[in-house]
Automatic annotation (TrEMBL):
It comes from the Bacteria. This is GntR family transcriptional regulator. The lineage of its organism: Bacteria, Bacillati, Bacillota, Clostridia, Lachnospirales. Transmembrane segments: none annotated. Residues 9-77 form the HTH gntR-type domain. InterPro entries: Tscrpt_reg_HTH_GntR, WH-like_DNA-bd_sf, WH_DNA-bd_sf. CDD domains: WHTH_GntR. One of its GO terms (molecular function) is DNA binding. Keywords: DNA-binding, Transcription, Transcription regulation.
Length: 122
């Protein structure tokens, strides 16, 4: 668990996104147990109900599931599901905006590709 929660989003949303990020980075793997709401609330010094709300977002998204009496676990296929959702969001929130702005200021498709290619040393 990372120790910093920002202030630009609700804490429970930050908790759910932090867990998703840890799944994407393979810190939390499918079928592994995630930190409990008590652990999250102590670590981040937040109300347990807030931590539970963040966990419940992921249950509703079919990313986590409960093993009765044991805790919450990462569901099989969770990583692929998160990647697909985030890819769609990335396209809608960033790619479309970049293309729209490029058209507005007269950047050609080729120029845009060059700009992207020159910065994609990943």
């Amino acid at each position: 668990m990372q120790g910093n929660l920002g202030e630009d989003k609700s804490i429970y949303i930050q908790i759910s996104e932090m867990i998703e990020d840890e799944i994407l980075r393979d810190i939390l793997r499918e079928e592994e147990q995630v930190p409990s709401t008590t652990e999250l609330s102590k670590f981040y010094k937040i109300n347990p109900a807030t931590a539970a709300k963040g966990i419940n977002i992921l249950v509703d998204k079919d990313i986590l599931y409960k093993k009765r009496g044991i805790g919450m676990f990462v569901k099989d296929g969770a990583k692929n599901s998160i990647q697909e959702t985030r890819r769609n969001s990335f396209y809608e929130n960033y790619v479309k905006a970049i293309i729209s702005e490029a058209k507005l200021i007269g950047i050609s498709k080729e120029e845009l590709k060059k700009m992207i290619d020159s910065n994609l040393d990943m």
